[in-house]
Design goal:
Number of domains of chain A: 2
Shape of chain A: elongated
Structural class of chain A: mainly alpha
Number of helices of chain B: 23
Radius of gyration of chain A: 38 Å
Mean pLDDT of chain B: 90
Oligomer: heterodimer
Largest sheet of chain A: 2 strands, antiparallel
Radius of gyration of chain B: 24 Å
Number of strands of chain B: 7
Strand order of the largest sheet of chain B: 1-2-3
Distance between the termini of chain B: 37 Å
Mean pLDDT of chain A: 88
Strand order of the largest sheet of chain A: 1-2
Distance between the termini of chain A: 132 Å
Amino acid sequence: MPDDNTVRNVLWLILLLPFVSGSLWLLAGRRANGPAGWAASGLTLVGLGFSVWVILLAGPETITLRTDWLALSGRSVPITFRVDTLTLLMLPLVHFIALLVQLFSISYLHDDRDRYRYFGFLGLFIGSMLGIVLAGNLLVMYVFWELVGLSSYLLIGFWYRKPEAAVAAKKAFIMNRIGDAGFLLGIFLLIFQSGTTELSELPALFLPEGPLATLTGFFLFCGCIGKSAQFPLSTWLPDAMEGPTPVSALIHAATMVAAGIFLLARIHFLLSPGALMIITGIGTITMLMAAYAALYQNDIKKVLAYSTVSQLGLMVVGMGTGNVPGALFHLTTHAFFKAGLFLASGVVIHGTNTQDMRLMGGLRKRMPVTFIGYAVCAAALAGVPLFSGFLSKEAVLTGAFDWAGRSGGPAFLIPVLALLSSGLTACYMARQTRMVFYGEYRNTAHPADHVHEGDFLLTGPVIVLAALSLGFTFSWNPFSAGHSWFANLFPLSGETGGHLWIALLSVAVVAGGVGLGWRMPEPAASTVWTRLSEQNWHLDEWYRRLIVRPFVRFARQCYRFDQLLIDRLVEWIGVGTVVLAHMVAWLDRTFVDGLVNGAAWLARRLGGLTRQVQNGRVQSYIVSAVVGLLLILWLLI
Amino acid sequence: MLSLLIFIPLIGSLGVVLLPASMKSRYKWITLICCSLELLLCGAAYSAFDPTQSGYQLLERADWITLPLGSLGVVSIDYLVGVDGISLPLVLLSGVVMLVGAVSSWKIDARQKAYHALYLLLTSTVIGCFVALDFFLFFLFFEFMLLPMYFLIGLWGGPRREYASIKFFLYTLAGSVLILLVMIGLYLSVMDPVETALRVGLIQDRSEATDEVIRQVQFLLSEYKIPSNLLVHTFDLRHMAKGGNYLPDSFLSVAGEVMLMGIPSRLLAFLCVFLGFAVKLPVVPLHTWLPDAHVEAPTPVSVVLAGVLLKIGGYGFLRIGWGLFPDGAAEYALLLAGLGVLSIVYGGFNALAQVDLKKMIAYSSVSHMGFVLLGIASLTSEGINGAVYQMASHGVLSAMLFLITGVIYDRTHDRRIDHYRGLAGAMPGYTALTAIAFFASLGLPGFSGFIGELFTLMGSFQSIWLPGWMTAVATLGIILAAAYFLWTLQRMFFGTLWFRPEAAGQLTDLDGRERLMLVPLAVLALLLGIFPNLLFDLTNSTVADWIQRFSIE
């Protein structure tokens, strides 16, 4: 049993190190431009060292460590760290890729004036991502979940002078927020039913059955929909490519977008069959739509972005079909080869000064090292045998086929569609490789002799990641996922690795895809189908029409309502009161005052009458006296 | 100590009035010194406060008015101040915000004497409101606050200042008439058990008033055994919060038999109090004074208005509405939470539609204060603690937001969002602090707003009084907040630098004074976001005790 306090301290160190490093650069300002890159990389290396130490300390056991955070009567939320195999996989993975990306960035951004900001934000990101990985309860995970959204926002909008970057950053954050709001509701539902979000306590308290559990599962999955860019919140990720390319490699390919998959792995035991069904469905839709969208993109990064969305969809399908180890395996291999692809594309962009693949071509000769790295990673992504992607894809596919076998009938649609999408993947990757590295160089604006290979800091990380994308890295038998070291960590389900026919089938599909992609003619004119791909199924257009514009219009109507009705009503009450006051004043003058005046007038008239009687003439007095006497006598008798 | 909090600014205000005009340059220093002293005293109160106790602490009491009225009993109005876990955070908040407002008033140069005298008067009444435990005293401060506010907006405000200040004044006044009615009703219905015991002759001295004696008096009262000329009526909120002190047949007796217009008079009284304070919070649809008042008010007054004055609405809900009429609060929980959700969503949509930065922030205040109402209405520990947290957090953040508006307005006299683009290039420091304030306000974890929103939402979801979909609708508010804040950030600060030619040369980055105001507020928001127990430790036991009365229902 490892000493809890030591582990706790080391975990705190791991978590705080990047935050401290990041805030240091941010506070130092431009002064930090010089040292930030190397120092930040150094600190990440230290973090990597610490995570290896944690692995040695923790061993195979699951450790849960609590630190008090806040306590109310009836509810306390501790900061809980959870260390299990999954944590131990993700900790070094995040550190390692972050380290390579930081090294790459030193060269990539060497003449940017705001490097301190870049490395500051990157520190913020790494810390937040590690927070998600370490979190032992969902509330703490939610905290870091949102912080990852923030750092993604800041890094996408790093070049804030570009209007597109600012818009993309905003879009990313808001779409993530929508998913997060759902996630939060899921957390509330969980608390409502079990009274806790502690991952260590939930298995005993939560029964994943029934409609309420499905609703809970769906809302929790919303977090994944946002972060992992699943349909219908998938459109922010391609736009996020406005950020610096190393950022795309780290955040929008290898780590942050994988957080959704990580979340599903963490909460898999909470998911009811109904929720899993929804998850599988959404994963399938995402996977296919994005794979098709990648087909006709001309921006080198956009192809990779759509491919990321599609691969995430595949992982979600893996989760949905109950194949957690397979999905995690794909997450791991994907992290390496996709980061490699993005970094390599960064070298290409750096060398050619453009992102448009139509202006590239023939770069194989001018950038040989990058080409090799790129080709290896692309082969891994496409699922070519002997490369890592083949193994992990096979693991996911096998799981899906097994699941379909258990579920029967129409469920087979899912693995078949997954196969189809892996064919599409092979196709667009072949097309991209051909457009970028083969044929003739096509850009007249940027002469061919200006195209140059990247320096060592740029190509080094690419080569490392390429090496990690080889099949041998994961398994001594490059045709069987079941023999990989990964399968020792996370036992792959059932007979996974046993179905030779799945491997053969997928090889055939990939071969077909590559062949198709290699020969795929570029459409002379855009058709409905190419536009559907280029515009990502016109999703953005539809969202603009159906959601954004109506929302803004509704907001304006709310404001008009506020002004014209509520405020006007208040004003009318005010005006009404003043009018009433005038009326009262008039009434007061005419009647109340009139009454008083009338009384005075009456008194005067009466006075006048009686005065006439008392006129001082003796005769009339005698007459009145006699008349009075007679009257009295008459009355008495 | 609490009396000092009330009287120091009052004395300062007098001092400003008495100083001759030749010492004009000293006025702002007096304000600054008074407000700094206030903050120090707040700190002292904080350290003297024992957060594990749930009752009122730091009590100070003086007989103020005692008037025997024969068969009508005895009028007793006390000068009674004290704090508990609900009011102390708000007192601390006032200390901070009033000081920031004082620094922000540095640039006021018209009619300095009147301005600073009124500002200090405002400080005194605001603090008075939060510490008064006698309803009459509270009402006095509550009403008196309107006077400096009216002039501060009406004299130093923007072009439509007269309209805005009158609207503000009348609106709040109309609300307080309702509160006044209830106050009189309560006064007629409640006795002071200690004083009554003295008069009846159960005890000889106040110090002998044990719980036993009080129970005895309350028993006598319920048996009609106390002659009416010996009953001591009281405005003491502590007595008003105890059902036993209500006269059995009185207008607001807890038995709730008296009907008025077809509903029990207690419920009606609760609604009156609610409406009175709802104007202040503000709750949609009683909010339209707020955008006008904010847009016209000078920056420091906006800061104080949003930072502190709105909180008096929420505080009034807790102390008087919910505190004295738990039956009404439970009866109308659904309606009140519904209004809270309406405020959140409606305020959010309105904020999204604004072209004026200050108005956008004003509407965002409406939205954020909706969380306070939602949390209070949930009648859960999470909800009410969260509501107090949200008030403190919004106090800090809205102060920051209005200062930020002030920064750009001071430079160009133009607050239209679409008149600026890419300000980040010209004013990086300003942009950084704006981004912090915006993200903190939209409820980013790590900042105080997140804790407030999280716990109010969690409370409303756990509440047995409220359906779950209400919370779901309310979460739309946090999405809207992201939309309007980030949209503004994108439009004003990002992209290539562009502004109207008139603004050329004026877009300088923050100066030292502005940093001095904004940076501590940002740090405070961060601290409260990372260490929520700083505040929850204060509120927790009071709220835990307070919530009991709802579980009895």
